[in-house]
Amino acid sequence: MSFTQIKASDLILVDHEGNVLEGRRPVNRAAFVIHSRVHAARPDAVAAAHSHSLHGKAFSSLGIPLDPITQDACAFFEDHGIYDDYRGVVNETEEGERVAKALGDFKAVILKNHGLLTVGHSVAEAVWWFVTMERSCQAQLLAMAAGTPQLIDRETALLTRGQIGGHLAGWFQARPLWDQITASDPDLFD
């Protein structure tokens, strides 16, 4: 199903073994393997966001972390991991466990040759980190294509992460996006 067509009634709830508890849709095995292992490893994470977004996929192929080259990228400074053991479509729980290990206590992980995954203490926070990480990947790709990006120094990057990289900041920054989506697509809640 296309993301543009998903409604609340299309969502499913599964248990820790992948059995559907609520909803009528089938379980995406790869999604279940990743998300179930992330949630098992990170009980503090209320939500995880993962997609094969264009800039996330392109950036993930480099196998490098995001650099502190913009204010938004500083939200991830020393707060994201890299999973560099791509083995095709994730079907085994052991690979989901390796993804969760690469995530560790961070808010995000770059899945090399795959995409991005973020977590949050709320759905809004997890979504915001995903959106801003995707945009930060795009910015770094553009900057690298134009030349050699100038890094923000470590002290300033850590200060900035403290200002914009916390749970409340993630939730708060997601609010305008939430307002925009609910105004433009009220039928999402059917």
Q: Would you kindly provide a written description of the structure presented here, covering whatever features stand out?
A:
It is a single chain. The chain is an alpha+beta fold and 190 residues long. The chain has a single domain, classed as Class II aldolase/adducin N-terminal domain (L-fuculose-1-phosphate Aldolase, 3-Layer(aba) Sandwich). 44% of the residues lie in helices and 13% in strands. It has six helices and six strands, in the order E-E-H-E-H-E-H-E-E-H-H-H. The protein has helices spanning 29-41, 54-60, 93-103, 123-146, 154-164, 167-184; strands at residues 13-14, 20-22, 47-51, 80-83, 108-111, 115-120. The strands form two sheets. A four-stranded mixed sheet has the order 3-6-5-4, sandwiched between helices. Strand 1 (13-14) and strand 2 (20-22) form a beta hairpin. Helix 1 (29-41) packs across helix 3 (93-103), helix 2 (54-60) crosses helix 4 and helix 4 (123-146) crosses helix 6.
Q: Any key phrases for this structure?
A:
13% strand, alpha+beta, L-fuculose-1-phosphate Aldolase, 6 helices, 6 strands
List the helices and strands and how they pair.
Elements: E1 13-14, E2 20-22, H1 29-41, E3 47-51, H2 54-60, E4 80-83, H3 93-103, E5 108-111, E6 115-120, H4 123-146, H5 154-164, H6 167-184
Helix pairs in contact: 1-3, 2-4, 4-6
Structure described in brief:
The chain has 190 residues and is of the alpha+beta class. The chain is 44% helix and 13% strand.
